[in-house]
Protein: Ribonuclease PH
Amino acid sequence: MRPSGRSPDQLRSVSLETGVNKHAEGSCLVKFGDTHVLCTASIDTRVPPWLRGQGKGWVTAEYGMLPRATGQRTDREAAKGKQSGRTQEIQRLIGRSLRAITDLTAMGEMQVKVDCDVLQADGGTRTASITGAYVALALAFDHALKAGQIKTHPLTDSVAAISCGLYNGAAVLDLDYAEDSSAQADANFVLTGSGKVIEVQGTAEDVPFTRAELNQLLDLAEAGIARLTVVQAETLTAARTPA
Structure:
């Protein structure tokens, strides 16, 4: 039995709310159970110096946790003067995931900066961030298209992410903190809406796991991401439909 009472292949309650920031070209508040992340996508007409003159754009991401996103307050990394290795790793993962489904040439010389701010954490903050960031990015590109900043929509697919793990010897989907903190193995899967793999991060926390167990986790991830993809599509359709 999982601490939450969920079945092994059951996601936490998932919601995606758009238009939560009036200033950002694209925004989405994503909730995976008690993990809540605010994702905003901002358009910048300047590209990084190393891309100037190449006729290509760029998508990058920043990630951070608010001081009281967890059970005990943590100091802001800005106050410490540097980002932690974990923060840098996660924001690079988000950026890679978004660029994998973006035609950078179709963007022209434009940059989109996606910010993922964790308001409340209960496990799976990176997977929730990627799932919500895609929606925010899609809406930012919608804005750029309507404004005449781009001629075609640069997205080539959708992207979502989910965690899976071995908990009490069983493969389970979408770990919350209670499971993640005591899992025998955990993995994060980033897949496109068409089922292609962008990234897999997997670690044995107790004893090594088998290829068969890895396949079980991947099967769970594929099914979970397929459901997330439907939620993303429904959310974007609603956001794009005139009131």
Observations:
- The chain has one domain: 14-240.
- The first strand starts at residue 14 and ends at 18.
